[in-house]
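Sorry to interrupt, but I need a hand with the structure work. I would like you to pick a protein and set down its sequence and fold. Please put the record directly below this note.
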Amino acid sequence: MTTAPAVSISQRDPALLGQTVVVIGGSSGIGRETARHARAEGADLILTGLHADGLEQTAAELGALSYSALDATDPAALDRFFGDLPKTIDHVMVTGPGPYYAPLADLDRERARRNFDAHEWLAVAVAQHAVGRVRPGGTLLFMAGTAGARGQGLSLSAAQTAALPALIANLALELAPIRANLIAAGFVDTGLSASLLGANLEARREQLRTTLPIGRVVGPADVAALAVHIMINTALTGGTYDIDGGEQLVSGG
């Protein structure tokens, strides 16, 4: 009896060949790395970001079909962007800005409202635009933090984190057969994390290296690999996929 030789990854066809992936927030961090992974799987890319310079550089590096510098939380700008897209696209990845942390006594209501718009309302707006544009079996993929954050200054973030899984699960039903999924990330070593932590960044990295079960810090490539897997696996919809290196296991979250 003979066994057929296994086909190596390098010999298989790219899993996203001929598909179009839109990355909203694709100029840096997790968005850029997801675009890179999708491109490696053969996808055509359409990128957006707030800052034209970084976006142009990423688009050129990855050979994107097109790119647009825009604020995705601006309804008119988002309308124009989706109106200019090809008639049919396959996947949309949305990475919003970081969380807003502030103790209740110092919480800026307007900034809190904008942060809510940049997460919950942006997900709703993208879902509305997806109807008739994203093909059946394609996915909308959103980002959130992991659940369980409690403490001073975390009230708004905790509420948003709790709300998004329910929202995405219901969108999966309303949009079917378009899929909707959520990635819930813990600490990811990005420029955004560096800006939030400042001088405390290296201490946080070292803490995670010594406490996480994986023995290292989660990076953008880890999240990107998960994002592309969700695009490829058409059985996945309505789910929330935690990626935190096991932090919730050791923190009791």
